[in-house]
Design goal:
- The chain is α/β, with parallel strands linked by helices.
- 38% of the residues lie in helices and 17% in strands.
- The protein has one domain: Spore Coat Polysaccharide Biosynthesis Protein SpsA, Chain A, CATH 3.90.550.
- The protein has a 7-stranded mixed beta sheet with strand order 3-2-1-4-6-5-7, with helices on both faces.
- Strand 2, helix 2 and strand 3 form a beta-alpha-beta unit.
- The chain starts with 6 loop residues before the first strand and ends with a helix.
Length: 229
């Protein structure tokens, strides 16, 4: 692994008491990880009590929001504290598998890419909810037309991006629209995204899935906003 490569993993967390500890343990097992920054977005279900047990662990930093602000805000809080060279976002719900970090980091270490996305649609995955898949397809199609690219999964949670680049993008999105903002701003800089196949195990709403159809509508509007404004 290149000496200049240090992977900071930001874990935005909100009410994930059933899965957050398993996610932390899986991330810490990965040799690619330089540090893990966990940002609790004012959980109320006992998640915070679990996180307190990791406050003094090696390679782990735990930060707390005093009020719920959204996934994007949690990511920006973690970004401000990151000391690595690159960042990947790890959701705390086990939909994404940290074993795929090796797939994400390889193009960077081999100087093939500057930004790497893990595509849920190129790799093995559990069947997704139909309306979620349709919304993703339409969103990808719309983004590819407007930005002249061929991204298969702009909404993926696994985005591996240099820290310096992320900080230069002047990101503002506070909720799930973070995914669209960061993608559009990267593409507007003329940076091509390198995609690799990842595994994906999507949750049902009854299991705690939080993104909704409203977030899809917001995402469509954000693509137009970032392309033309």
């Amino acid at each position: 692994m290149k000496k200049s490569f240090k992977l900071s993993v930001i874990v935005p967390v909100y009410n994930e008491v059933k899965t957050v500890e398993e996610v932390i343990l899986r991330v810490l097992k990965r040799k690619e990880v330089f540090e893990i920054i966990i940002v609790d977005d004012c959980s109320t279900d006992g998640t915070r009590e679990i996180l307190k047990e990791y406050e003094d662990k090696k390679r782990v930093r735990v930060l707390y929001h005093t009020k719920n602000q959204g996934k994007g805000s949690a990511i920006l809080t973690g970004l401000a504290k990151a000391t690595g060279t690159h960042i990947v976002i790890q959701d705390a719900d086990l939909e994404y598998d940290p074993q795929d970090f090796e797939l994400l980091t390889s193009p960077i270490l081999e100087d093939k890419a500057e930004v790497v996305y893990g595509s849920r649609f190129l790799g093995p995955h559990m069947n997704m909810l139909f309306w979620h898949k349709l919304a993703n397809d339409i969103l990808n199609f719309m983004l590819n037309i407007l930005f002249d690219t061929t991204i298969s999964d702009c909404e993926t949670g696994y985005k591996l991006i240099p820290v310096d680049l992320l900080r230069q993008l002047n990101l503002k999105a506070k909720r799930f629209d973070f995914e669209i903002e960061v993608t559009c701003k990267i593409l507007k800089q003329g940076i091509r995204v390198y995609e690799v196949p990842i595994s994906y195990s999507g949750r049902e709403y009854k299991e705690g899935k939080k993104i909704t159809f409203k977030d899809a509508i917001i995402a469509f509007g954000r693509v137009l906003q970032y392309r033309f404004l």
